[in-house]
């Protein structure tokens, strides 16, 4: 505050209004950086008023840009857009194109916050064009990095990585160590989303090294936390703890205790996974105390919930079902007030389990119903968001589709065009495109989603020459394609060694669950007996000894989803929604050589099925309860395995 006091005193000694405006803007920026929004707005408005009076257009633009920033922080996006637009006009009047580029970037960020991705991309393009023209390399780095973040948000990871690569090359060229650290970490985040653990760790650790070299406290803590997150997802909890403790040590001498909340909470969660309930309890309490100091209601609710879960653990020394109920209800109350639905249905699940533990089956059932109803609501919202994310590509996609049809018509190659589209898209979707349908995005109330991946693929891949590896994958996926087609499923895509297919879209099919179950069993059988014949042109054949008995694992879930066509240069039919995410979780939590399915899938397969310990047989499929398991991002789920009945060959 001494800095601000000094600046305020200088205003009285200023020689003219131009000097006063500069000081007012400096004060407004200082308040904005310390998150004192009201004071920042007050001084920025004074600056606008005085700048107008002395016709200082440049400083008026700077003050308006600050008002845009404060409006954005407060969530008043329409006000932010208005302020930024006027600021841009002011900078254009005085031909300060570096500032014009900055404001265009701010407009892009604001439209991104409104999920208007196509408009945001247009503003980033305009900003980059100016930066290239005036050779503003810091601006190019900023805008390539931010546009990369936008592409990451909408799941276009190829373009995200391309933008990050551009930003990294420029940052290296001008030796901007802070930008190098930041964007190297962003790149790790893309590979994390792509489930490429090796690459994610490579970039996160490189970012951590850069942060340590530059003594960047925030980045050291952030990248330690990111690395811990990867190890946590991989089940390497001791390594996750090692990096989390390193992150925590960065902030232990810091005056800003707020930075410690997430790290403390993550440490608590890892200890819980290790069944170390004592340490989990201690760290959850530490996080809660800081959250209460800052009146951070969302985190208060989060750690009330975690403490409530710990209190109901029988092996915990402080086991107390009454306190468990008290903390879980407190957490639910706050989450309800804040409208944090994802947290609410975790509260409902924990309370349902607690009341079942207490023998109060009525309350247990009531909370289970609340969980089930809210889960559907959240899934619907997630599906809508997924559909909304498609909007950014609509304009270019429509243009590309029009160009394809025009070229085909002009060159009298419609038949060839049909053949190409039918080879990369479901026939029904290809026909719609050829009929000039400009945007394809359909909602499906019920589909079955299947994921298959190869067990121990990463170590296998490290021992096989690249060409031979591609050949092996081609053999596996060609066989999978054949089986999927035989059973009436639609292949969606392959990602690395993972294979995704659906039934029930794009053609709705009430029997999708049964067809998917039969396809999954056929896949398991085929992969167990797959014979790989190595052509002579591949040379060394010794790698075949490393294959052994090829095993895959399969995960299936049934639910609602959104299907549509995306892409500008290449079309692709894809599926979005919680049904896809849950099917992926079924696969990743499955076992080698087995088909792991959700209770929703079993109920679609056999509506009368109940969650119990009895095996069920329907036609030539045996359903075996696995029981309750903890599923990452989903909480506790009751799941099953399905297989061919014993003795049926």
Strand portion: 5-15%
Give the oligomeric state: single chain
Shape: globular
Full CATH superfamily name of the domain at 440-643? Nucleotide cyclase, GGDEF domain
What's the level 1 CATH class of the domain at 440-643? Alpha Beta
Low-confidence stretches: 383-394, 408-416
How many helix segments? 27
Biggest beta sheet summary: 9 strands, mixed
Question: What structural class do the secondary elements suggest?
Answer: alpha+beta
Q: What's the architecture of the domain at 440-643, going by CATH?
A: 2-Layer Sandwich
Quick one: how many beta strands? 9
Distance between the termini: 79 Å
Into which percent range does the helicity of residues fall? Answer: 55-70%
CATH topology of the domain at 440-643: Alpha-Beta Plaits
Rg, alpha carbons:
28 Å
Mean pLDDT: 84
Structure description:
With 649 residues, the chain is α+β, with helices and mostly antiparallel strands. The chain has a domain at 440-643: Alpha-Beta Plaits (2-Layer Sandwich), CATH 3.30.70.1230. Helices cover 65% and strands 11% of the residues. The chain has 27 helices and nine strands. The protein has helices at residues 2-13, 17-33, 37-53, 57-73, 77-93, 97-113, 117-134, 137-153, 157-173, 177-193, 197-213, 217-233, 237-251, 260-273, 277-293, 297-311, 321-338, 341-358, 361-389, 394-410, 414-424, 427-434, 457-462, 466-486, 512-528, 578-588, 599-605, and strands at residues 441-454, 490-495, 498-503, 552-566, 572-576, 595-598, 616-618, 621-631, 635-643. Strands 1, 2, 3, 4, 5, 6, 7, 8 and 9 form a nine-stranded mixed sheet that branches. Helix 5 packs antiparallel against helix 6. The longest helix has 29 residues, at 361-389. The protein is globular.
């Amino acid at each position: 505050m001494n800095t601000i006091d000094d600046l305020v005193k200088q205003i009285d000694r200023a020689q003219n209004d131009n000097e006063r405006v500069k000081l007012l803007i400096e004060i407004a920026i200082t308040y904005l950086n310390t998150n004192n929004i009201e004071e920042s707005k007050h001084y920025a408005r004074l600056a606008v008023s005085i700048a107008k009076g002395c016709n200082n257009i440049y400083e008026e633009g700077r003050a308006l840009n600050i008002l845009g920033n404060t409006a954005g922080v407060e969530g008043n996006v329409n006000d932010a857009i208005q302020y930024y637009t006027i600021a841009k006009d002011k900078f254009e009047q005085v031909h300060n194109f570096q500032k014009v580029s900055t404001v265009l970037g701010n407009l892009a960020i604001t439209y991104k916050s409104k999920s208007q991705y196509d408009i945001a991309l247009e503003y980033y393009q305009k900003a980059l064009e100016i930066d290239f023209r005036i050779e503003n390399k810091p601006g190019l780095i900023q805008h390539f990095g931010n546009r990369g973040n936008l592409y990451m948000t909408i799941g276009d990871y190829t373009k995200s990585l391309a933008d990050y690569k551009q930003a990294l090359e420029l940052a290296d060229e001008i030796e901007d160590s802070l930008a190098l650290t930041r964007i190297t970490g962003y790149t790790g985040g893309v590979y994390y989303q792509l489930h490429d653990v090796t690459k994610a760790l490579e970039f996160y650790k490189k970012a951590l090294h850069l942060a340590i070299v530059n003594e960047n406290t925030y980045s050291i803590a952030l990248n330690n936390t990111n690395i811990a997150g990867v190890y946590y997802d991989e089940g390497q909890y001791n390594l996750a703890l090692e990096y989390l403790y390193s992150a925590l040590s960065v902030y232990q001498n810091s005056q800003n205790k707020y930075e410690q909340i997430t790290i403390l909470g993550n440490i608590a969660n890892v200890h819980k996974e290790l069944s170390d309930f004592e340490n989990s309890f201690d760290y959850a309490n530490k996080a809660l105390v800081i959250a209460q100091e800052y009146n951070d209601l969302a985190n208060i609710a989060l750690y009330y919930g975690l403490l409530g879960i710990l209190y109901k653990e029988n092996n915990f020394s402080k086991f107390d079902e009454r306190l468990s109920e008290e903390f879980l209800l407190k957490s639910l109350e706050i989450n309800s007030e804040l409208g944090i639905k994802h947290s609410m249905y975790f509260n409902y699940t924990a309370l349902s389990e607690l009341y079942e533990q207490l023998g109060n089956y009525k309350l247990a059932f009531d909370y289970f119903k609340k969980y089930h109803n809210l889960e559907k609501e959240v899934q619907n919202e997630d599906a809508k968001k997924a559909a909304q994310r498609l909007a950014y590509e609509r304009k270019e996609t429509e243009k590309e589709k029009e160009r394809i049809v025009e070229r085909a018509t002009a060159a009298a190659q419609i038949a060839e065009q049909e053949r190409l589209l039918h080879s990369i898209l479901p026939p029904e979707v290809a026909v719609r495109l050829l009929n000039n349908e400009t945007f394809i995005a359909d909602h499906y109330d019920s589909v079955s989603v299947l994921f298959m991946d190869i067990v121990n693929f990463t170590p296998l891949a490290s021992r096989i020459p690249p060409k031979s590896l591609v050949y092996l994958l081609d053999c596996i996926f060609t066989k999978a394609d054949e089986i999927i087609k035989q059973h009436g499923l639609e292949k969606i895509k392959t990602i690395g060694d993972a294979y995704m297919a659906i039934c029930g879209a794009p053609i709705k099919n009430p029997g999708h669950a049964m067809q998917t179950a039969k396809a999954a069993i056929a896949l398991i059988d085929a992969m167990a007996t797959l014979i790989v014949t190595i052509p002579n042109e591949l040379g060394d054949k010794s790698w075949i000894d490393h294959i052994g008995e090829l095993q895959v694992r399969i995960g299936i879930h049934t639910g609602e989803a959104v299907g549509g066509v995306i892409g500008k240069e290449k079309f692709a039919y894809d599926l979005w929604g919680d049904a896809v995410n849950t099917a992926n979780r079924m696969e990743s939590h499955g076992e080698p050589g087995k088909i792991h399915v959700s209770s929703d899938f079993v109920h679609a397969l056999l509506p009368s099925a109940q969650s119990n310990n009895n095996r069920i047989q329907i036609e030539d499929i045996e359903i075996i309860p696995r029981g309750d398991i903890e599923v990452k991002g989903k909480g506790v789920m009751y799941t099953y395995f399905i297989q061919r009945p014993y003795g049926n060959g």
